[in-house]
Amino acid sequence: MIDSTLPLLVKGYAWLPDRRRRTDGEPVWTRLAGQRAVALHGTEAVRWFYDERHVVRKDALPGPLLDTLFGRGAVHTLDGRPHRTRKAMFLSALKDPRAVQELADLAATEWDRAAARWAEQDQVVLFDETAEVLTRAVCAWAGVPLPDEPDGARQTSRDLVAMVDGFATAGPRHFRARGARKRQEARIADLVTAERGRNPAPEHLAPQSRTPEAQAPEAGREPSGGRTTALAAVAHHRDADGSLLDPHTAAVEVLNVVRPTVAVSWFVAFAAHALHRWPEERRRLVDGGADRALAFAQEVRRFYPFAPFVAGLAAEEAQWQGEQVPAGTMVLLDLYGLNHDEKLWPDPYAFDPDRFVGRPPARDELVPQGGGDPATGHRCPGEDVTVALLATLVPRLAGLSYEVPDQDLTISLHRIPTRPHSGFVLSDVRTRDERQLGAAATR
């Protein structure tokens, strides 16, 4: 089999769908980075892929991906009991509706402050501004202080964006991502050490309660119901063997809360693109309430490209649709293709939030951030955060008055991760209050 690493880097999101079309729906066999690989597609493939009897993550993620996106020693590299114990630390915060709402409220406050500043500027780049909004919100929420510098929030947001932006390239973006990760891991490792020296472990995070069964329901939350910050929860977390995480690994896991939250900037830029292409959606968002906002958020996640696929290794020799998958084979799960499968989504290349009105997506049909059960598998535990942030911020975007000056709004499928080329520039931004004052002045 010919190695497909270069075609993947060149074609981006189109690589796997193109290969699938040539196989008439059969599994795609190839090589990536010299390793035998098979790509699977469909909702049944989602369930098969997230079954640890079939696919494991240990040793599956290449070093360049760990050095940019996830970090060395991250939860993504674990399986079985060690994975469930570590992941419970994330689930308690990221799946708790109260904590998710608190983060969404913080993001709304930061957005409103930023929008007031945008009104005083000739132009703003929405992607960059949203990244800073989300950085300020999630760092406050996670208990991670920003650097005490005038541009501390902006620099931190640039680093967090760089980690995501550089994971799928071998060029300058990749080296920026490595440098950003190194800086932020060192800074947060110091914060972890300081947290351990300053505060004792909360009672519910004490060593005697650290079996997965005992700690999963309440990890990261104090007995009184008050929320323990993500920084404190990670700093005092004990793994399945009862040991604290070393400061570097703890910093990696704090970043695995903060970094994906800032990555919602990609979806906000896509949402702006959708509102520009289909301006009738602006009024529907402003007038439609929470249900419309949720439906719009889900359709943005389905329609626009985010992750092309996820990967693991075959745990042992197994069968998929009658074909033998040898142990150690790299297994790819097609995400972009599944989100545009006409068998699941009628007219899949039409942007249509109505498909989600009154119909939440089934667990394994909408998979922009992976599939399966987040409580037992490797599905991203931050999906609820992504949807909540989008449903909170996009109506605010729709409610702004702004112009879209001439710019390059191309979304290239060759670039992973992609986004509108210009970052989506806004000019003449006015908030609703300013529009009301202007109207009053003309009466």
Protein described:
By secondary structure, the chain is of the alpha+beta class. The protein has one domain: Cytochrome p450. It has 16 helices and ten strands. A five-stranded mixed beta sheet has the order 1-2-8-5-3, with helices on both faces. A three-stranded antiparallel beta sheet has the order 4-10-9. A two-stranded antiparallel sheet has the order 6-7. β1 and β2 form a beta hairpin. α7 packs across α8, α9 crosses α11 and α13 packs across α14. The longest helix has 27 residues. It is globular and about 65 Å long. It starts with a helix and ends with a helix. The C terminus is likely disordered.
Topology summary:
Layout: H1 5-11, H2 15-22, E1 28-32, E2 35-40, H3 43-49, E3 55-56, H4 63-70, H5 80-94, H6 97-118, E4 123-125, H7 126-142, H8 152-165, H9 172-198, H10 212-215, H11 230-236, H12 247-262, H13 264-277, H14 280-303, E5 309-314, E6 318-320, E7 323-325, E8 330-334, H15 383-399, E9 401-403, E10 425-430, H16 432-441
Parallel strand pairs: 2-8
Antiparallel strand pairs: 1-2, 3-5, 4-10, 5-8, 6-7, 9-10
Helix pairs in contact: 4-9, 6-7, 6-15, 7-8, 7-12, 7-13, 8-9, 8-12, 9-11, 9-12, 11-12, 13-14, 13-15, 14-15
Count of β-strands = 10
Gross CATH architecture: Orthogonal Bundle
Domain count: the total is: 1
Computed over alpha carbons, the radius of gyration is 22 Å
CATH H-level superfamily: Cytochrome P450
Terminal residue distance = 73 Å
Secondary structure class reads alpha+beta
How much of the residues is beta strand, in percent?
5-15%
- Broad CATH class: Mainly Alpha
List low-pLDDT spans. Answer: 207-225, 437-443
Give the biggest beta sheet.
5 strands, mixed
User: What's the overall geometry?
Assistant: globular
- The main sheet orders its strands as 1-2-8-5-3
CATH topology term: Cytochrome p450
Mean pLDDT: 90
Q: Total helix count? A: 16
The arrangement of helices and strands along the chain is HHEEHEHHHEHHHHHHHHEEEEHEEH
Helicity, in percent? 40-55%
